Amino acid sequence: MRLTKQSLVRRWLLTTVLAALVFAVLYGLDFELKGLSDYSTQDLQRFSTAGEYQLAFQAWAPLYMRRVHFNLGLDYLLMLLYAMAFFYSGILAREAFAPRPGRLRRILTMLAAVPLAAAILDAIENALEFALVSNDPSGPLAQIAFGVSSAKWPAFYVGVALWLGALFGRQLERQKRRLKAANGP
Length: 185
Known about the structure:
The two termini are 33 Å apart. The protein has one domain (5-183). The chain has 5 helices and no strands. The chain is mainly α.
């Protein structure tokens, strides 16, 4: 299946806007949870010991556990959306900065897959965090969750860089079209 450039840009914009909306909702819900209990689900990303999870569990159980589970579940939707937006960003950046075959085009093509790895690591992290706050947390599992969370961030930042590259590439294309229109055919 081949996408037109226009269709790719539409998908990029749609997934970017939806990811931003889901992020805003999730951030608001997490901010409210932190205000109520002194812990947010975002805090779990920094936890590396069973004791830290136990403290959060004590603050949340039983009153706020439904909120915690909802936030962790909603994060899966965010993962899908940011992975798609960043993947499309990589393709748009590739087309803007490496339209012809070559080393840069191959590198940008490979980099477009990196945000997909970030989303997979994020999903694993959420599953581990869900297990840790829903059951009796163990130290080794907390360490694994922390390691997965730490591995996710560099891949996520590659996605942010690709998104910025796509945005910059779109601006360059607009500028070229304006110059071409101003100079005539």
